[in-house]
Amino acid sequence: MLFFGNLISMVGCVLMVLIGFVRKKERVITLQCFQFGFLAAGNLILGAVSGFISGVVSILRNLIFPRVKGGLWLKLVFIALQVVFTVLAGWAGPISLLPLFAGILFTWFIDTKSDIQLKWVIIIAQVMWGFYDFYYRNFVAFTFDVLTILSNLMGICALKKNGIKI
Q: How many Å apart are CA 61 and CA 34, to the nearest integer?
């Protein structure tokens, strides 16, 4: 099970890095659903229930938010879901707040019109996940966190080279 869970998670990690090269927000959001699905499945197989819950909430958020005109109230619903499910999954100390904060940050900025701003949000969220993964010695995920940060920085450079501003 350990190998299978890591293998499925690896697929999600590869998608996470490749998404950094995608320039359009709509495609980023869609591809993230697949990324979150693989990562959630891998977490469930490995017994990381809070990671599974976070993935499911993220998929729901990415599927619903762009299609429903809800604005602030919809953001608050998904932030509340993330908080409630994180609390229900159990408290593992202050380090367990990093994935929660990363999810809240992404949810808050999900409706940004700026492709560059979305990439910066992804970078900041990935830094939080990087500390979390390193703390838990998930070095494969940590490596992909770093690669995701780098690919999004490259994506920002490509967008700026094409004259796109924040």
A: 13
> Could you tell me which residues come within 8 angstroms of residue 14 by beta carbon, excluding any fewer than 6 positions away?
144
CA distance 21 to 18: 6
**Whole-prediction pTM:** 0.81
Q: What is the DSSP letter of 70?
A: -
8 Å CB contact between 103 and 87: no
Closest CA to 81 of 66, 103, 102: 103
Question: Are 101 and 132 a contacting pair, CB within 8 Å?
Answer: no
Residues whose CB falls within 8 Å of the CB of residue 8, separated by 6 or more in sequence, listed in order: 38, 41, 42, 45
Alpha-carbon Rg for the chain, nearest whole angstrom, is 15
CA within 13 Å, CB half, 130: 15
Q: Tell me the pLDDT tens digit for each residue of 1-45.
A: 778 878 888 999 999 888 878 878 788 888 999 999 998 898 778
Q: Which residues of 49-65 are buried (b: 16+ CB within 10 A; e: fewer)?
A: ebbbbbbbbbbebbeeb
Cα–Cα distance measured from residue 78 to residue 158, given in angstroms and rounded to the nearest whole number: 31
Residues in the chain where the model's pLDDT stays below 70: 164-166
Structure tokens at 15: 């998608």
